[in-house]
Amino acid sequence: MAEIRPDEISAILKKQLSGFENEVDVYEVGTVLQVGDGIARVYGLSKVMASELVEFPNGVTGMVLNLDEDSVGTVLFGDSSLIKEGDQVKRTNRLASFPVGEKLLGRVVNPLGEPLDGKGTVQFEKYLPIERKALGVIQRQPVKEPLQTGIVAVDSMIPIGRGQRELIIGDRQTGKTAIAIDAIINQKHTHTEEAKKYGIKPVYCVYVAVGQKNSTIAQVVAKLEESGAMAYTTVVSAPASSPAPLQYIAPYSGTTVGEYFRDSSRHALVIYDDLSKQAVAYRELSLLLRRPPGREAYPGDVFYLHSRLLERASKLSDDLGGGSLTALPIIETQQGDVSAYIPTNVISITDGQIYLEPNLFNAGVRPAINVGISVSRVGGNAQIKAMKKVAGSLKLDLAQYRELEAFAKFGSDLDKSTLRTLGKGARLVELLKQGQYVPVQVEKEIVSVYLGTNNFLESVEVKDVKRFEREFHEFAELKYPEIFENIRMTKELKDDTVALIKKAAQEFIEKFKKS
Amino acid sequence: MSVYRISYRYANSLMQLAEEKKIYSKIAQDADLIYSSLEASKELRTVLKSPVIKSTAKKNILTKIYQNKISKETESFLEFVVEKGREDILFDVFKEFINLRNKKEGILRAKVVSAVELNDSVKKKITSKLEKETEKIVQSKFVVDERIIGGFVAELEDTVYDASVRHQLKLLRKKFAEEISI
């Protein structure tokens, strides 16, 4: 056994103490006038800044939100029962901020940067304020690189670009979180050596959980860990049990981490799950601070709450390193009501939305994306050429199918071309179905969509479409690997590749029919 | 309207009246007297705050207490406040008045806490040191509190100069609780 000499210990302790300066400490204080419901009114603190952190006794921190004539309104990040009237409040001279750095990846933290995963203290580089002004026009450039979610329906018809803000909206239990998690898992590919070879830059992810059940968050983290996605992901968690102020600042904290990656010319993806709960938390706070209520009792600045958050998503100009911050906010609607206050606000702020429907979900169309009303306003520019080429007619075909489908329910004798359109549509819908946690590589997506839109599936039974797709991918990978290689390399769908796909498809259909 | 705003208005008008009639020092003295008496007597404050007691009774009480002790102007000010039904914030008004006066004359009130009773030379030294630091006239009030173990704590309005052993120990504990780098 190794021996430790007592004098060694005292030397170490002495060394620790030597750095300790015995100086007069000057700080500013105030007194708690009133406390309750997570709010404290403080007398004094005359020089305090808005949104500065203040220290209460018993390790509770708070944030200044209201600066009144004779008192200061603060929200508490801890238990208000630990604080009583007359307690001393100390200024920290620090705006509410969040630790950022490389070491935050793989961690689960609360919105103040304190660890929740039991892996010890969080190592960080620096603190950045959680509220920062969004960048202006000069610092930005149009979205141009794709962010592949690995979901065929999204990548083909509602493409998302790096630096975009795309809303995921839908009722409860329609698979909103699933899309977000799939998008995170799919970024694993961007961190590989192979992706580097094809010029795809890695995407770092931040998952912000607001007002969710702790069990759900644990599930998400476990899933991310299982698929190896935690290595490049930070989870900022403000569960339903945490005080409203923490839920309110959680999205801002998450964005701060994303901005750190963006500003060091890398790419980040931030998911806010979900912003309707954040709005509710903010409403609670505002009402307790006696700010006047407006529509649905939300305060007047609830639009600004979300606009200033999502405005921080951006694609930086090349002068600033060309980093990007993509935002995927999630909004939960009540009984499909998208005309409620918060959904309309966020729809108008974002660059498009992915609309999920319970009807589709229950009919087995998963992901339950309603492609008719889902749009992406800027992602099209970011799509790779090959995808643009094959996906063009997909949306049209599906629109035709939906129109006829409603119509065909009544009539029995339909002409041949109508039947054909219906058959094609049914196969396309089947093709776009996808399991959870199995994101698909973009080159495979392209080949699948190509087969669907170019009538190669006509001879395949609807129920066999998924099997056909899977087996074709395996077949092509073995016998014609250059199809995928060409698309990956050139990002285009050249005529020789198309010819190869056709050849492979014909060859495979023969085989498939026999089986 | 908040109590602060109302009391500020009353205090400010009293201040202006004093300056106008050039009886500033007299009124300041009265204010000190009234403030300290209100501070000392909780009963008086309760009486003034009570909505059950009639304003004529309150007026009588106030005149009886302060008659011949304060100037005529202050007396009529008290009467005016009661007439307007603001006697409940009388204490705040005078508090605000003293604040205004301190600001005007550059006076800072300090509370100095020490673990043991200090002798006069140390008290003077601390006060002069604080005056030098803040560049204002400091009126110190000395309090003994054994809980700070040693050293002293000076509170000037919102700012605290903490040189107590208790605080040093707290800092030391915090430092050790953080990551130890060896």
What can you tell me about this protein's structure?
The complex is a heterodimer of chains A (515) and B (182). In chain A, α8 (302-310) packs parallel to α9 (341-349), α11 packs across α13 (442-453) and α13 (442-453) packs across α15 (481-490). In chain A, β14 and β15 form a beta hairpin. In chain A, the strands form three sheets. In chain A, strands 8, 10, 11, 12, 13, 14, 15, 16 and 17 form a nine-stranded mixed beta sheet that branches. With 515 residues, chain A is of the alpha/beta class. Chain A has 16 helices and 17 strands. The mean pLDDT of chain B is 88. Chain B has helices spanning 3-20, 24-40, 42-49, 55-66, 72-83, 90-105, 120-134, 165-177; strands spanning 107-114, 137-144, 152-156, 159-162. With 182 residues, chain B is α+β, with helices and mostly antiparallel strands. Chain B folds into two domains: 3-103, Peroxidase, domain 1; 106-181, no CATH class. The chains are: A alpha/beta (515), B alpha+beta (182). The interface between A and B is medium-sized, with 22 and 21 residues.
Q: What is the helix/strand order of chain B? A: HHHHHHEHEEEH
Instruction: Characterize the biggest β-sheet of chain B.
Output: 4 strands, mixed
Low-pLDDT runs of 5+ residues of chain A are none
Multimeric state: heterodimer
Number of domains of chain B: 2
Instruction: Provide the structure class of chain B.
Output: alpha+beta
Through-space gap between termini of chain B: 58 Å
Q: Approximately how much helix is present in the residues of chain B?
A: 55-70%
Mean pLDDT of chain B: 88
Greatest chain-chain contact: A-B, 22 and 21 residues
Q: β content of chain B, as a range?
A: 5-15%
Helix tally of chain B equals 8
CATH H-level homologous superfamily name of the largest domain in chain B: N-terminal domain of the delta subunit of the F1F0-ATP synthase
Unreliable segments of 5+ consecutive residues of chain B = none
